[in-house]
Amino acid sequence: MSGTLLSLEFDRSAITLVRHMVTESARNAGLVGMALEDFVLAVHEAVTNAVRYGIAPRGIAMWREPGLLRCEVTDSGPGIPDRTLHRKRMARFDFGGRGIWLMHRLADVTIRTGPDGTTVLLSAAIP
Question: Residue ranges of the Histidine kinase/HSP90-like ATPase domain (predicted)?
Answer without folding.
Answer: 13-123
